[in-house]
Structure formats: C-alpha cells, structure tokens
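Lecture notes, part 5. Sequence design as translation. It can be helpful to think of inverse folding as translation between two languages: the language of shapes and the language of residues. The source text, in structure tokens, appears below.
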C-alpha cells in the first residue's frame, strides 16, 4: 500500500497549570511544506490535558481536510514537546492521572482512521511553530477579558 506521509507538530499549554489553556497544531507534508495551522483557546485545563487535546485536534483536522478515504492511507508523524504525553501515547509510560484517560482513549480511537500514527518527542526548539500558535491563542483570549 502506498502511504502519504504527514508530519504534525502539536503543543498545548496552560498559564497556571491548571489555568487558561490553549492548543497549537501545525500540519506539514513530507517535504515540510505547511498545509495548515491552528491555535485555539480551550478554557481552563492542565498542561497535559492541553497536550492531549492538541493531538486530538490534529487528527480530527486531518480527517476534515483530506477526508476519511485518503487519511486511511496516511502515515502520520505526531511530534510534540511533552515527553510524558508522547511516551504515554507510545505505551511506554502508564497513565496515572485519571483525568487523562478520556483523552488517551479519544486519541486511540482516532488513530484507527489512519494507516499509521506514530508519536515522537521533540525538543521545544523544534516545536516553535506549534508553541507560537498556543501563545497567540492565549494572548488573544486574554485580550478579550480586558
């Protein structure tokens, strides 16, 4: 089977942990050309919840952009700077925070719509674009309050 490779950078952050939180997603093709990026405030959450929600948004957006038939042939590389969440999604770490179970299950179910989904921990400096989307969404949300 011929698989199209998609690279997704995700990030989530909360100011206060828990506190006002946002997620960022940058979708690229196999040649690192940007396809789409998203930044979205998600209300109050922890950093880990935001990290998971960013992965969920990324997989949902891929299905919306390309459609289910095409994404069934995609090999997706999800790159995130949360080592904890990356290792939990790879099955290397147990999930001990009960509030993360529903997010993990949602990611697990979304993975079924793709030929392959792999998770990679990357250093923060290699995830700047997704991080910028998080901060822009948080700043925009904060300005609404004043």
């Amino acid at each position: 089977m011929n698989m199209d490779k998609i690279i997704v950078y995700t990030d989530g952050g909360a100011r206060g942990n828990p506190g006002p939180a946002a997620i960022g997603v940058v979708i690229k093709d196999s040649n690192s050309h940007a396809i789409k990026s998203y930044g979205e405030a998600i209300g109050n959450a922890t950093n880990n919840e935001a990290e998971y929600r960013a992965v969920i948004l990324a997989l949902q957006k891929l299905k919306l952009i390309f459609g289910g038939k095409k994404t069934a042939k995609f090999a997706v590389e999800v790159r995130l700077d949360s080592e904890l969440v990356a290792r939990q999604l790879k099955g290397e770490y147990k999930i001990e925070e009960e509030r993360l179970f529903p997010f993990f299950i949602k990611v697990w179910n979304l993975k079924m719509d793709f030929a392959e989904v792999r998770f990679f921990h990357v250093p923060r400096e290699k995830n700047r674009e997704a991080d910028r989307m998080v901060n822009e969404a948080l700043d925009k949300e904060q300005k609404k309050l004043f």
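The translated text above is only one of many valid answers, since several sequences can fold into similar shapes. The longest strand covers residues 34-45.
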